[in-house]
Amino acid sequence: MKTRTEISAGAVVYRTASAGQSEVVLILTHEGRWQLPKGWVEDQEDHAATALREVREETGLEATVIGILDTIEYWYRSTYDPEPARVHKFVHFFLARYEAGTTDDHDDEVQEVRWFGIKEAMDALAFDSERTVMAKARETLTRAQESHA
Description:
By secondary structure, the protein is of the alpha+beta class. It has one domain (2-147): Alpha-Beta Complex (Nucleoside Triphosphate Pyrophosphohydrolase), CATH 3.90.79.10. The chain is built from three helices and seven strands; from the N terminus they run ββββαβββαα. It has helices at 47-59, 118-124, 128-147, and strands at residues 2-16, 22-29, 34-35, 38-40, 61-78, 85-101, 110-117. α2 packs antiparallel against α3. The longest helix has 20 residues, at 128-147.
């Protein structure tokens, strides 16, 4: 079986909701999993640009990158190509602030887009690695709130 490496980028997009609490956006895939928006890096695209493009495509939202959160890696078996392959995947995740747009404007790759409180998002996320990324986002947002208090 062939082996290849893939590089993707995505983001934890947040906004401040009522009572000053942060909300984050998740996507529901057609496989029925709640995940963070992410996708493949295209030719000559930097990771932050990829993250914002994927957020726009998969959620319908415009956002501004605040900083890098984490890079996760995992292996999976790809069956997209005619010949199956083992894929070593790296995903660069950023923290991004919501600027504009509506979750109704997501593309067909996504079944649903929804805002969650951070705890609810942690419970809903399908993968441990993305829960770890969300925990880092929560820590960053908490520190930012405390420094402005």
